[in-house]
Structures are given as C-alpha cells and as structure tokens.
Specification:
By secondary structure, this protein is mainly alpha-helical. The chain has helices spanning 6-27, 32-43, 54-74, 78-83, 85-110, 114-123, 129-138, 145-175, 186-224, 228-250, 254-266, 271-295, 301-304, 306-330, 335-344, 350-361, 367-412, 433-444, 456-464, 477-482, 498-511, 524-532, 541-554, and strands at 426-429, 449-453, 468-471, 490-493, 516-521, 537-540.
C-alpha cells in the first residue's frame, strides 16, 4: 500500500542530519545551532540530493516558533530585569537603535526600499538566547554582575521582538505596496494602529483576568492526578491552544500568544515542572525550526554577493558589539564588564530568523535579504566561541599582570599592607547565595567574620549588612593576605571554583597550619582535590542533602528506636508514648 511519507521523511531525515552535524559542531566547540542550520541547507532546495517538503517544513517551523516563544515566556523574569534596569533598558534600546540604523544605512547604499532596510536592520539587532546563555554558563558568569547585565539586556531585546511581532503586520498593512504611490494618511495609520492595540489589549486583559486564575488551577488539578503524561500534555495543550486561540479570536500572532502562555505559567508554583516536562518536545521542534530556516538559505549568495555578506557580518560582529561596549562604559562599568557584554551580543539567532521570516511573509523583506540575515547568523554563531576564547586569554593576561604588579609591592614592605583589626575570625570566601547565608548566620552568633568577594555589587551588599569585606579575588596573594589568615581560626570557601580554592587553601595552610579550612564541592573529584590541597573538610551538597533527609527519616515514628522500659516503670499503669 502506498503511503505519503513527506512528513515522516522531513522529521526523520531532518532530525538525523541535524543530530550528526549538531554533534560535530559541538565537538568543534561551536554552537549546535550551526549544525542544525547546516542540516537545513543540506535538505533544502538549493543543494543536490534529498529535498524536504518546504510547505511541511514551514508548518513544523511554526510549531517550533510557538514552543520557543513559550519557553521565552516561561523563563521571563521581571525581577532579573529590575535588578539591572538602570543599564539594561537604556543600553539595549540604544544598541537596538544603532544596529537597526546600521542595517538601514547598508540597505540605503544598496538601493533597497526603506521598509526593507528597517526590518533588515532590526533582525540584526537581537542576540541568540541559546548562544549567549551557553557562553555565560561555560564561564560561570550567570551569577555575576556581568552575567546579570547580559541576561537583563537579553530580556529587553526579547520584549522588543515581541512588540515587533505585534507591530510588523500593522506596518505591512499600511506601507506594503504603497511605495511609489500616495502615502497613507495620518488617519489611516492611526486607525490601523489603534485597532491593533485594542485587539492586543483585549487579549492581554482576557489572559490576565481569566488565564492567570484558570491556568494555574487547571495545572494543579492535573498534577494532583499523579499522571506525568497528562501533565505534559496539558502544558503543551495550553501553550499551543492559547497561541492558536489568540490568533483566531484576537488576530495576534501565534508567537505572542505562546509568549503570554509561558508568562502566565511562570507565575505558577508548577512552572519549573512545566518547563522540565515540556523541554524535550520543545527542543525537538526547535531543532526542526532551525532546520526549516536553513532550508531557506541559498549558499550561492556567499559567492554571488560576498561584499554584502561581509557587510552584514560586520554589523553583527563589530557594529552592534562596539555600540554595546561604549554604552556599558558610558554607564561607568569596568572594561571587563563592557568587553564581556559586547562579546555576548556579537551574534544573532532565533529571533532574527523569526523577524526575517515574518518580514518575507508580509512582503517587508525579499528572499535575498533574508539569506543575508541567515548568512550573518551562521558566520556570527560560528565565530562567537572564538571571540570569547580571545577575550578569555586577554582577561587572563591582564589579570596575571595586575596580580604580578600587586604582589611586588607587599613583598617589598609587608608591614605596609592593609591589616584588618580582627582576631580569631572566620574568613568566608564568596558572598553569593551560600556565602551570604553562612556569613550572616555566623555574625548573628557573635563570630567575627571577614568576607572576601570580587564582585562590586556583592561587596557593597556585604558592607551594607555590617560585615568586614576584602574586595578582590582570593587567589591573588595580596587579597588573601588582607583577610589576615595568620590570625584566623576558620576559613570557609563558599565559591564553586574548586581548582582556584585548592591553590588558595594550600597557601593559607602554609601561613597558618592551625587554620581549619572547609570548602564547597560539586563532585567527588572536587572533594578529593580540595582535601589533597589541605582542606579539613569538603561539603558535597547532594551528599549532605541525602544525609539530612536520612536523619529526618530515621527520626520519624516508624523508624525511631523504641525506648527500653526501666525497672522503675510501673507495668500496671503505662505512660502514653511520646509523639
């Protein structure tokens, strides 16, 4: 019996090739997105061999967009944005404006229509969430000032794209097809914009009034059944159902509906479970989305229009990243922070594809212009890890030079180094979530505490909370000596960097052999490393949690040892058992 296998072939072949090329890209220390896009090019119409059904690919891509936007809403954090709003909001808006202007200027030089140039420039303005977060996680920067600024910056860019998804159809209705003819009247523009805003406002009102109560209540009921399959199905049904219903009833985009569905679930206590349960399917359709985007890319543009490809890549790699650098510096942040933010934003990704794809479907961009966006994305995503490695080497050289210069002065006259007026104290290294709780607990119990912290905002917070603070990296010998380890009784390393902690523990023990040192570890290998370098104890969080739970279990009535009766007990009048 003959079967139409177009859907099966695009899913099977697309995912298989995406897996192979994604693994290869990961092996080469590039983002797997490069492999997914390359898989799309291979199965696309511009390369020989197997050609997937473009119409089916587009529909699968729409599902991928909805699930991607659902994930963005699910992880949207207004709190994270508010922590760095002073720089993230104006900085991101200014950087988006610069990138959009550069894209428009390039388009004007090439003679494109103005509307095409604006959409083209805007599609180059927003960075990839996947690429940025991966770079930050690899360097453990997410909990630092630099990481929080980058994440806040990214949130503002995401919001700008959400607004663009609402306004682009409006602009298309007004301007597409009118160039060269009479311009639209002010009344026409105002009427169209107002009607769109009213529909969006109605959708938002319904979601906030009804959805905020109904969706969490529904999820709680489903979670109460204990069926994981039903819960996962309910999450996906909510995400896709709201996206489809919002487009059908209110005329807003699938992406906007999915984003709001994620935002509403974000407020629920079950949001973490919803994110975890929907992640596998969301990732699978996201891969198909990137494959479908790759199918739209014509590789011949690299040969036919190399200068335009180079100009597009230059705007992404140098134009908008330079703008981000100078904006961060203008707000008074150090050079290290500015370089990290600019390198983080020197790429584009999923939102660029969504904006460019919508632009083509609305007649606001041409296929060739979209191919330039895709070429710029491929080049920037491939080069971004290399840019970060260059930055890492530069910062390492600067740090080594600074430490060498700082180390020379104290050795010339050790008596002149800063000495805190404290004795028999505890040195707490790191004032993050773990270190802060520990330091405050010790302080409240009357233990003298000296905090060593290198992040400016955490240092300021510790001082505001009445603690003695040494600012700097404890691996630097002058910083370590400023904490007076020779007069301390205890040192606790609450930082998650075991290799750095081990070297510092060894130096502290050489200065004060009687010092008791405890440290934090994330694996058995880190525990061994810390103990070998002189730590008296290393806390492995997962193991300690298991011990605590075991003690709680053994203290419950079913497992509590029975009290042995004494000779003085009166058997005729037994006392009631203690609860």
């Amino acid at each position: 019996m003959h079967h139409d296998t177009s859907l099966i072939s695009i899913v099977a072949v697309g995912l298989a090739i995406a897996f192979v090329l994604g693994a290869l890209a990961n092996r080469l220390r590039m983002s797997p997105l490069v492999g997914y896009l390359a898989a799309g090019i291979i199965v696309g119409p511009f390369t020989p061999g197997f050609v997937a059904d473009q119409e089916l690919a587009n529909q699968l891509a729409e599902i991928g967009v909805m699930l991607l936007m659902f994930g963005v809403g699910l992880h949207f954090s207004l709190k994270d944005l508010m922590e760095v709003k002073a720089i993230a909001i104006p900085g991101a808006v200014a950087q988006i404006a610069v990138a959009t202007f550069l894209g428009w200027a390039m388009s004007a030089a090439l003679g494109w229509p103005t509307l095409h140039g604006v959409v083209f420039g805007f599609s180059l303005a927003t960075a990839s969430t996947v690429v940025l977060l991966r770079a930050m996680e690899e360097r453990r920067l997410l909990d630092t000032t630099r990481g929080r600024i980058a994440v806040g910056w990214l949130i503002v860019e995401d919001l700008a794209c959400v607004i663009a998804l609402v306004m682009m159809p409006v602009m298309a209705d007004i301007f597409v097809g009118t160039e060269g003819t009479a311009p639209p009247t002010l009344r026409m523009v105002a009427t169209t914009v107002l009607w769109t805003l009213l529909k969006v406002a109605a959708f938002v009102a319904v979601m906030l009034v009804v959805g905020r109560r109904a969706i969490p209540a529904l999820l709680e009921r489903i979670a109460g059944t204990g069926s994981r399959e039903l819960f996962t199905l309910s999450v996906l049904a909510i995400a896709l159902g709201i996206a489809f219903g919002s487009a059908l009833l209110f005329g807003v985009s699938f992406a906007l509906g999915a984003f709001f569905a994620g935002m509403l679930l974000n407020e629920s206590e079950l949001s973490h479970k919803a994110a975890n349960d929907s992640l596998p399917l969301r990732d699978a359709f996201a891969v198909l989305f990137f494959v479908s985007v790759g199918m739209l890319f014509d590789p011949s543009i690299l040969v036919q229009r190399p200068l335009e490809v180079l100009a597009t890549a230059s705007i992404i790699l140098f134009g908008k990243s330079a703008a981000a650098y100078f904006i961060v510096r203008a707000f008074g942040h150090p050079n290290q922070t500015a370089l990290t933010i600019s390198c983080s934003l020197a790429q584009i990704g999923e939102f660029a594809f969504i904006i460019a794809g919508l632009g083509v479907s609305l007649g606001m961009m041409s296929g060739e212009e979209q191919s330039l966006v895709l070429a710029g994305a491929l080049i920037s995503i491939m080069l971004n890890p290399m840019i970060f490695r260059m930055l890492d080497r530069r910062l390492a050289r600067q740090k080594a030079a600074a430490e060498a210069a700082a180390a020379a002065a104290p050795h010339e006259d050790p008596a002149e180094r800063p000495v805190l007026a404290v004795n028999d104290h505890t040195i707490v290294v790191g004032y993050g979530r773990v270190g802060r709780q520990l330091a405050l607990l010790l302080r409240d119990r009357g233990v003298p505490v000296v905090v060593v912290e290198e992040e400016a905002d955490l240092t300021q917070r510790a001082r505001e909370e009445g603690l003695l603070v040494v600012r700097g990296n404890v691996a630097s010998e002058p910083v370590m000596l400023e904490a007076v380890p020779e007069r301390a009784r205890l040192a606790v390393f609450a930082i998650p960097r075991a290799l750095e902690a081990g070297e510092t523990i060894e130096r502290m023990k050489a200065i004060n052999p009687a010092l008791t040192v405890l440290a934090r570890a994330h694996s058995e290998a880190e525990v061994r490393h810390l103990l070998q370098h002189g730590a008296d104890g290393a806390v492995l969080a997962e193991r300690e949690l298991a011990f605590s739970l075991a003690e709680m279990v053994m203290s419950t009535p079913p497992y509590r040892p029975a009290r042995k009766a004494s000779d003085d007990d009166a058997p005729s009048d037994p006392a009631p058992a203690a609860a």
